Every structure is written in C-alpha cells, then in structure tokens.
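It is worth pausing here to work through a concrete case rather than discussing structure prediction in the abstract. The textbook approach is simple: state the sequence, then state the predicted structure, then interpret. We follow exactly that order.
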Amino acid sequence: MSGAKIPHLILASTSPRRRELLARIGVVPNDIIPADIDEDPRKDELPKPHALRLAIGKAQEIAPAHKGSYILSADTVVGVGRRILPKAEDAETAKACLDLLSGRAHRVFTGVCLITPDGREISRVVETRLKMKRLSGVEMTTYLESGEWDGKAGGYGIQGLAGAFIAHISGSYSNVVGLPVYETRNMLIGAGYING
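Step two, the predicted structure:
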C-alpha cells in the first residue's frame, strides 16, 4: 500500500498548554524536544523582539539534528511598556508581577517559528492587548496560594483563576495562553504541513 508520507513534526516546547492548543486544530506533534537556550533578555531588548528572538532561537537549536522534519517553536512574553516581565518561578516573583499588572494595561507577545523540512524558516509575532482589574488583597492572596502562577510569564495564566481578573482583551485569547492558533495554523498550511 503506497501513500504520501506523513510529515514529521517536532514541537520544541514541553508546555502542555501548547500541546492542547495544537490539538484543537488537529495537530499532534510526533516528538516533544525542548530547546535549551538562554532566555534572559538582552540589554535594552523590548518585549516583542525578545519573543521573536527566543522562538527563532529554540527552533534553530533543534533543527540541525532533525533535518527533514518540521520544527515548531514558540515563546510567550508579557510586556508592560518597554519592560519584560519574568516567568514566575516563586511566589515573590509572581506577586511582584501582579503588583505591576494590577489595574494596568499590558501586552502579551508570542513569537512563533516554523522550520520546514527543506530548511525554510517562517516566523512571526502575535500581540494581544489586555487590561487587568485592580486586585484586592484577598484576590492577590488567593491567587498566590493557588500556585497557578508557577512558570507562567508575567505570573498569571488567563486560562485559570486569573481569567476573572482580565477586564478587557483585544486580540487572540489563545496567544495569551501560549500559542496563537489561528496564525499557527496558517503558518502550517503555508508550509505544506496541513491542508487549508
């Protein structure tokens, strides 16, 4: 029995949220291979170019050892003005992020990069604008105690309890979760991985 070979897709991220978002558009990676790159912002680097640089860097890190495969990577960054908020690895960092976001507008940028089996590189950044309500002491304490902030850019995940703190959103919701599905699907169609 002959047929077209199913293209091989590697997701350069261990994020379960990205896998779930890909599944929503019918895409299941063949392999999950996280890239090990320095994610610290460069001096004076702004949030948008930072997100794009990391997404491209992750894909380029994985690609040489996996020629002939599609490599998909992404990186999500929360920005307040020119400032890049960190991924919260402890409650103190999460609180500092939430103190800064409380009552303010901010932006979430996700850089997405796709390297094709023939070595083409397709990348873009998607931006979503949000405004968080002013958090009460009880809301802040409850959220910090929930632990949902762990590992999240900017100290919150919109898909969890913090979704109730977002007063306004303009742009892609899935982008804030970690992968803009509309744009990612279009990239995969354009690269010939899936049919439109």
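Step three, interpretation. The chain has one domain: 9-190. The domain at 9-190 is CATH 3.90.950.10 (Maf protein).
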